Amino acid sequence: MRLLRTPDDRFTDLPDFPFEPRYVELDDPHGGVIRVGYVEAGPADGPVVLLLHGEPSWSYLYRKMLPVLAAAGLRAIAPDLVGFGRSDKPGDLADHTYARHVEWMRGFAFDALDLHDVTLVGQDWGGLIGLRLVAENPSRFARVVAANTGLPTGDIDMPAVWHSFREAVQKAPVLDVARFVQSGCKSSLPEEVRAAYDAPFPNEMYKAAPRAMPGLVPYRPDDPASEANRAAWKTLTELEIPFLVAFSDGDPITGGMAPILQRSMKGAAGLEHPVIADAGHFLQEDKGEELAQHVVTFVRG
Which positions fall inside the AB hydrolase-1 domain (predicted)? Predict the structure, then answer.
């Protein structure tokens, strides 16, 4: 596996992101050692909140939530998925599979950091990966917050807007990461924030992960990940783990999943599931502080 590493100077002077970068190294059978970057805020002995981002963002997406969670005494941990942020970047599209991304985050959370009693916050691919982690390692988790995400199996077709996004990512001669993040927000991003989303990707060589991820979503019943996701659905619907559905009111890609999760997950019964108003797909960007407060209430409640 050919691994690329974004130069550190790409991450200097990022707006509103004062968190010290941390790293763990994972042994990978396909590529030797992969370095995973992450940031952390809050007391080391606080209840753990694992914040998983999606496509094509990185842990910078959680900069508005980290201080709120830390102030409430929670240990908030936001890793960069492999191929994103400060994490190493497998350089070929074929290096990226759904199963590998699940395994990389499992290795990060459990082998490297040995996290227990975790509250998962998963958005976009952070949910596709995180919900698999919960289903396959339920004893490690105390709660789940699903935010604009799902766990597709390919048995139901994805919305037309997602197919358009997938085609645009795969065909773009130059992948404009900041533009895709902006298109998923209700608020207008300042130029320096857009630059921060571009920072992990100095040129097209570094963008294999954001290019690959849309094609890894199971959108056909015979997708390589479909069976594992079906098994995860079966486990998740039977778990007693409290399950909060905190979606925005303006996500055309995942919005239809909110009622399905609420009625399917045993742990969702009896909870008051918030709807984050005036927010798009990237609700952490549009209303991060509000989402963080719901997480605090959920954990502390």
Answer: 47-287
For the beta carbon of residue 204, count every other beta carbon within 10 angstroms: 12
CB atoms within 10 A of CB 2: 11
Structure tokens at 13: 């002077």
CA 187 to chain centre: 20
Measuring CA to CA, which residue among 82, 42, 38, 41 is closest to residue 59? 38
Predicted TM-score of the model (pTM): 0.96
* Angle, alpha carbons 113-116-117 (nearest 5°): 145
Contact 226, 154 (CB under 8 A): yes
* pLDDT tens sequence across 2-59: 999 999 999 999 999 999 999 999 998 887 899 999 999 999 999 999 999 999 999 9
The dihedral through the CA atoms of 220, 177, 253, 61 has a sign that is positive
Instruction: Tell me the residue ranges of DSSP E strands in 43-150.
Output: 48-52, 75-79, 89-90, 118-123, 141-147
- pLDDT, one tens digit per residue, over 180-225 is 999 999 999 999 999 999 999 999 999 999 999 999 999 889 999 9
Residue 111: partners with Cβ closer than 8 Å, 6 or more residues away: 26
| d(C-alpha 285, C-alpha 251), whole Å | 13
- Range list of H helices, 107-225: 125-136, 160-171, 177-183, 191-198, 208-216
Instruction: Classify residue 194 as exposed, middle or buried by CB count within 10 Å of its CB (0-12, 13-18, 19+).
Output: middle
Per-residue pLDDT of 118-165, as tens digits, reads 999 999 999 999 999 999 999 999 999 999 999 999 888 888 888 888
Active site amino acids: 124, 251, 281
